[in-house]
């Protein structure tokens, strides 16, 4: 099923603009675990992370790369009900990404990470998006195929 262009554009905006997100990984026993992470986006629209091997979420993805990522829209004013802001849940997998471009894109979005980006226990990872679930207001809930999102970044 194809999502309407407006929904796909809103989802892509969330990916481009997000600086943080809630990363869902799976513990060894299969229980879900959610942590707060900093993110950036690659030119191809893949969420990009700088993760330490010391972090629980990194140990989880080493065993099972399936993840979800929740991004919150920035349009809700401070003090408003946070559930009035649009939000996007991305579902997919994650893999280490070793490229100068990934490093540059991430550090451009998060210059404060430059000091620890060189530590031996840190590495860059990118998410492959299989699908998205956008909640963009009351009664506006749209499932989006990952291919539709990727096409918007081409």
UniProtKB/TrEMBL annotation:
Entry-linked SUPFAM superfamilies: FMN-binding split barrel
InterPro entries, sorted: CREG_beta-barrel, HutZ, Split_barrel_FMN-bd
Protein name: Pyridoxamine 5'-phosphate oxidase
Pfam family, one: CREG_beta-barrel
Coiled coil, from the record: none
Signal peptide: none
Native species: Parvibaculum sedimenti
Domain CREG-like beta-barrel: 6-145
GO CC entries: cytoplasm
Taxonomy, superkingdom: Bacteria
């Amino acid at each position: 099923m194809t999502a309407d262009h407006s929904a796909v554009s809103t989802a892509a905006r969330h990916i481009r603009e997000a600086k943080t997100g809630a990363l869902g990984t799976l513990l060894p026993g299969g229980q879900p675990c959610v942590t707060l992470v900093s993110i950036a986006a690659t030119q191809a629209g893949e969420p990009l992370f700088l993760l330490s091997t010391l972090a629980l979420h990194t140990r989880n993805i080493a065993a099972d790369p399936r993840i979800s990522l929740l991004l919150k829209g920035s349009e809700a004013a401070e003090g408003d009900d946070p559930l009035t802001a649009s939000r996007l849940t991305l579902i997919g997998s994650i893999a280490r990404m070793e490229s100068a471009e990934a490093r540059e894109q991430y550090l451009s979005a998060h210059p404060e990470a430059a000091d620890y980006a060189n530590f031996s226990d840190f590495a860059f990872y990118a998410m492959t998006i299989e699908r998205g679930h956008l909640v963009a207001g009351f009664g506006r809930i749209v499932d989006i195929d990952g291919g539709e999102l990727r096409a918007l970044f081409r």
